Batch of 4 targets.
Target 1
Amino acid sequence: MAEGHRLGVYSVCISPSFLPLDLSDAPGLKVATVCGFPSGKHHSDVKATEAARSVRDGADEVDMVIDVGAAIEGRYGDVEADITAVRAATPAPVVLKVIIESAALTDEQVVAVCRAAEAAGADFVKTSTGFHPAGGATVHAVRLMSQTVGGRLGVKASGGVRTAADALSMIEAGATRLGLSGTAAVLGGLEAAEGY
């Protein structure tokens, strides 16, 4: 938490079992956590319960993983119902981000899942967990997601964003937030490139 505060990041994502946290050393830092992580193959009621518990334990944001198999099979109604269940368990002002594993989906599936997330009341669509064998964020996926949600939802690029060049390309493609495991290195690269 102290490092996140020192680097000036918006939020730090942690496993739900680490909640609640003492944020006295990091005032203003938001806490994000995950549900249905990393496979998304949990029952919707389990995801919703996990998300609700995390919010009770102090999470400001919940990142849920969709059932990627349902999306691949074209069961977009099931994907929307899954997201709706978690949204009901995490009412505003809690931020709900929907991890779609974009690298595992076709363009058509990415668009359909983003539409399902919007219809279910999500706040963000997010490229990936960073654990799926198909890969993480790509400029193409971020651009497609951004075009689909049209500014009505945020777009988070996550998974494989490791350099300042990666970060800038994702932002240029439409990412409104980045998920980084090497924040200090990316920020250092940005400072060097921009002469901050």
Target 2
Amino acid sequence: MENDIFKALSDPSRRLLLDLLHTSDGQALVDLCEPLEMSRFGVMKHLKILEEAGLITTRKVGREKLHYLNAVPIRHIYERWVSKYAEPWAMGLTSLQNELECEMNMEKKPSHVNRIAIKAKPEQVWQSLTDPKKTSKFWFNCAVRSAWEVEETFELWNGEEKKAEGIILEMEPPKKLVMSWRFVSFPGTESDTPSRITWEIDPHAELENVTLVTVIHDEFEQAGHTAKILENGLPIVLSGMKTLLETGKMLSEK
């Protein structure tokens, strides 16, 4: 997989496409063709390579196919090839997505989309997402609390401090979980309205016992600070879940 990522990054046109998505996420093919001096078919080929490497994800919105930067593979590259050589302050360099503009017009597009492949069954992924003993090992030391019923509350606790809360909006174990989301103890998020997080858990179409986990954060037009925190935090959560399920260790362990 890393070879695919480095191959995808080796081409200047593909790096330009990533830069374009960094500047404005969720673009259609026609939007991405304009800055590149090549045919529509040529741009499609480059986008396919980027998607196969996991560097972008796509979502159908109406008749359009929108393209999104996927920060998770970049995070893994950083952890293996950068973090052990760099100073702690370099953590700020890992995010490829642009800082959220609170006044941007999001229309009906999903906003931040992250995807990762985990060598585990969907049932194991679902358990790790709903078991407080598991979440405390990959979700910034926070344990989940919920009755796991639609319209019931969802909370994340770090010891005796509640960090986030929401309502279960939709639940289809072990395939899908949709929840509203609001931070309760992060400075700057006091005025943010609840946003939404969707977890999609799908068996890989070709690889046995491999699950694709997609996390979508949207409806944050009035929750800019929350979106910025999750933009940087969710890739780490997904990386931690993958490490825990595949190795039994926490992301911070040597």
Target 3
Amino acid sequence: MACKNNLVVKQIIDLYDQISKLESLKPSKNVDTLFGQLVSTCLPTDTNIDVTKMSEEVKDMRSNLIKLCGEAEGYLEQHFSTILGSLLQEDQNPLDHLNIFPYYNNYLKLGKLEFDLLSQHSSHVPSKIAFIGSGPMPLTSIVLAKFHLPNTTFHNFDIDSHANALATSLVSRDPDLSKRMFFHTTDVLNATEG
């Protein structure tokens, strides 16, 4: 198993080296291919890598890779939110086309998992939920609102006004979610109750 784990770590380091040298992390064929390879490398469940036993250099690389993944995910969400928002001009509900987002099925599974966890640890259905850092494509909020919590109000917080504008555009044509999903542009560290 150690040999396999070493091979996986080497593959991740090689991918990190390529990803960190990209001029931009915005969606493109090269970016999509590299992150697709990273995801498929990290998905197997038969590896058991103990991060605490890695060298400081590899730990730093891992931290940087997590940041790069977050940045790339932000660009990917912005890209697809813009595409879906353009459907407004065609008088369509963008939420009817969420399946074009490459990781939509992952969000469906994640939403179910989060709902199940919430149900296990709460005796009542919440009337309000807040999401922090909801981004331009707040799929977790959307999935929970559409499929699991049909009477709950969702307050989505993001520091980026452009992200909130895109997110608002996504839900604006949906007769239900447009009344239950709100987007607040603020730094939550400075937010006050209410």
Target 4
Amino acid sequence: MFFYKTLINWYLKNNRDLPWRKTQSPYEVWLSEIMLQQTRVAQGLPYFLKFTEAFPTVFDLANADESEVLKLWQGLGYYSRARNLHFTAKYVANELHGQFPNSYKELLKLKGIGDYTASAIASICFNEPAAVVDGNVYRVLSRFFGIDTPINSAEGIKEFKVLAQSIIQKDNPGRYNQAIMDFGALHCKPQNPLCNDCPLASKCVAFEKAKVSEFPVKIKKIKIKKRYFNYLVVISEDGKTLFSERTGKGIWQGLYQFPLLETSKNISVDELISNDEFTAVIPNDASISLFNKEEIVHKLSHQHLITKFWIIKVNSIEGSLVDWNDIEQFPTSVLISNFLKEYSKIE
């Protein structure tokens, strides 16, 4: 009870003023929670405001084209979230007549909604005592109770969920969930937590044993994979370029890109023009130059993309053509978007 009451008291004095906190609308809470997965509030907030302005209701989101959704999402990363968001919006609008399920178990059945998001919506919107467990919660609970079970193990996921559920009260569970998440984000931070001014310090195991920095415990990360990307930025004399939607189930599905040549290592211009995939697309009279003199390393969760942008001027070209002046209308990855911004400065 000390833990619960202390967090609530702290929250009432220190809670963040966020737009989705001012409503119990399942649509807006769902939207915010999906956006804040793997994303800091400061980064996610502008996107939430853009989305709610463009799509005020779940019906508006459902009726939008996927490319429009992906374009608004651009820069937020983890694009499968946006595709799942759009899929679920269509399901809720068309199959559930715009009404979100009102229980944790039913919410879990929606695409893109896992334990954390279902718990958040159920508790905040429907007052169901379903405890959220995210990175902030893992950190607070592991430090306070001194739990060294790895949070990214099957055993740890189960143990922390059971513990979190045992603490939550039936009285305003949504407020408690928001309290522990805010506490982890603002006070019990990953680096430089405010332990000397912490209302929980008197009973915090990690603080007592001077081991705060050792919690939470994680199993060693998987090895980072390196991939070598060569984008062929083809520009014809009449201002056309090759630009098409990325297909398949890998990263950036549904986003647009220049022709991509992936290699097993860094390659030179001679190696580029002798590649069969290159010669199948690019005419013999092409003029080729490397845009970025230093390789660009784009870091994703489990892979690093070592990237080169090759500027290829041609008289004419055939394929999926787009007018260069229209290219920014298409949804792209941050990697492509950043290139376009830099290239526009020298055109």
